[in-house]
Design goal:
alpha/beta, about 230 residues, 5-stranded parallel sheet, DNA-binding, homodimer, 4-stranded antiparallel sheet
DNA sequence: GACCTCGTTGACCGGATGCTGACCCAACCT
DNA sequence: AGGTTGGGTCAGCATCCGGTCAACGAGGTC
C-alpha cells in the first residue's frame, strides 16, 4: 500500500513519513506541488496526503488538476487554516477528506484508513485485459473465468502491468511498485514474470505477457492472434 | 458501537465528536454529503447523524440515496431550520428522526440512544454469504439453517468479513473492527479465524473462510466449487 | 559464425507467514 | 469459593514465498 505525502514543511513531512511507515504503508514524499502532481500522476498511490500551502503550485491546483485529468486517487487535504472557506474549496476541487492542522496523529491514521477502504469499495475494483481479470479488492485473478492462484508478489506485478495494459512497463517501474523496500535487481522481476507466465499464459496456451527487450514487459489482449 | 456524523460545520462536528466519544461511541466524521454517503455505504455504522445543509450533496439526497440502495441504517437528521416542511421532507426520504438546531445535547443523546435501541429490535439486519447468515441484531449465526454458536469476538470478526464478502480483508482492518481498544498482534485474528473455521467451515466440510496470504482473509460463497 | 548482452527458468534454501494446541488468567456465573 | 467460558499469549510446526544463483537460450552486432 503506497502513499504519497506532499508536504513542504520538513519536520512534518518527516514525522508523517516515519509514522506512516511504522503503520505499514510505503511512503513517498514530494516537497512541492509540482513534484507532487508528477508523482501522483503515476497512479501508483492508494492515497495522496496533500498540504494546501505549498511552494510552486498550491494544493488546490494540484487537486483540481488531478481530477481534471481523471485521476481518482483519494486525496486527504491538510491545511494550517481551518476556515470553512478553505475546507469547502478543497472539497469542491475534489479532495475526499480534510484535516486542519494541528491534527491528532490517530485521527489522521483513522481517516486515512477509512479513505483507502472506501476507495477500494467504490472504485471499479476489477482490472480486465482481454479475458484476464484482476479483482484488486478480493485479490482474485481469473483467466477466461477460471480462477488462477497468484502469490502477493505475482499479483502486484500483474496489477501494474494490467493498469498499464498495452504499454511497455519498465522493470524499474515494476520493482518500484511491487517491491516496497528498495530492491534493485531486475532478476527479481524476471523471476516473477516467469512464474506468472506459467500460471497465466502457459496453462492457457496464451502469450499475453510479452517481453519488450531492453525495456521491460507488456500485458496485451492476445486472444485473436495469427 | 460506531456512529457516523455527517456535518460540515467544523465546530459542531468537533463538539459532537468529543461528546459522543465520551458517551462511549466510536465516532467517524464526514464533512460533506458525498463523503458521508460513501462512508455510510460501508454499513459499519449503527447510526448516522446527518446534517441537511451540506456542501456537495445535501442531506435529503444522501438519505434518499441510501434508502434507495436498501441501506437501513438509522438516520437522525439535523437542520438549522425547524419548519414542518423540512421535517416532513426529511422523514419522507427515509430519515428515522429529526432534530432542529439549536438543540440540547442531552436531547440528541437521548434520541440517538432511542433510535439505536429501536433499530436493534425493529430491523434485524441479516448478513448472508451463501448459506451462511449472520443476524447482527440477534447475534445469531447459521450455516444452512443450522444454528452455530459463536463467541462475541468470533462474531465480530465474521461480521466484518461478511460485510465485505468476496473481498480480501486485512488483519489490520479486522483488528480495528473487532478489537475496539487498540490491539496490534495479528495472531489475535489468526487465532479467532482458526476457531471460526472449526465451527463454521470444518463442521460443514466447507471452505468459505479463505486465507489471502500476505493480506488477510476473505469470506466467500463456496457452495459450488470444482 | 563468434561474441556479447539480455532474458528465461529450474533448483535450492532461508526466512516469513500462518495455523493450532496448550496454557493460563480474568470475568462471570452458581 | 469453585467452576466455566472466553480469549490472549506463546511456541512449535507446516507451508509457502521468493531471493539467489547459475546454466542455458535468444537476439543483436560485427
Amino acid at each position: 500500500m503506497r502513499i504519497l505525502v506532499v508536504e513542504d514543511e520538513v519536520d512534518l513531512a518527516h514525522t508523517l513519513h516515519t509514522g506512516l511507515t511504522a503503520e505499514g504503508y510505503s511512503v513517498d514524499l514530494a516537497h512541492d506541488g509540482r513534484q507532487g502532481l508528477w508523482m501522483a500522476r503515476t497512479g501508483e498511490y492508494a492515497l495522496v496526503v496533500l498540504d494546501l500551502m505549498l511552494p510552486g503550485l498550491n494544493g488546490y491546483k494540484v487537486c483540481a488538476q488531478l481530477r481534471r485529468e481523471g485521476n481518482a486517487t483519494p486525496i486527504l487535504v491538510l491545511t494550517a487554516k481551518d476556515g470553512d472557506w478553505d475546507q469547502a474549496e478543497a472539497l469542491d476541487t475534489g479532495a475526499d477528506d480534510y484535516l486542519a492542522k494541528p491534527f491528532s496523529y490517530m485521527v489522521l491514521v483513522a481517516r486515512l484508513r477509512a479513505l483507502v477502504r472506501r476507495a477500494a469499495t467504490v472504485a471499479p475494483p476489477v482490472l480486465a485485459v482481454g479475458d484476464l481479470s484482476l479483482d484488486v479488492a478480493g485479490r482474485v485473478c481469473r483467466r477466461a473465468g477460471a480462477r488462477v492462484e497468484l502469490t502477493p508478489r505475482e499479483f502486484a506485478v500483474l496489477e501494474l502491468l494490467a493498469r498499464r495494459a498495452g504499454q511497455a512497463v519498465s522493470k524499474a517501474d515494476l520493482l518500484y511498485h511491487a517491491w516496497p523496500d528498495e530492491a534493485q535487481d531486475p532478476n527479481l522481476v524476471e523471476a516473477r514474470v516467469s512464474a506468472l507466465r506459467k500460471k497465466v499464459d502457459a496453462a492457457f496456451h496464451r502469450q499475453s505477457l510479452q517481453t519488450v527487450r531492453g525495456t521491460g514487459y507488456r500485458l496485451v489482449d492476445d486472444r485473436e492472434r495469427d
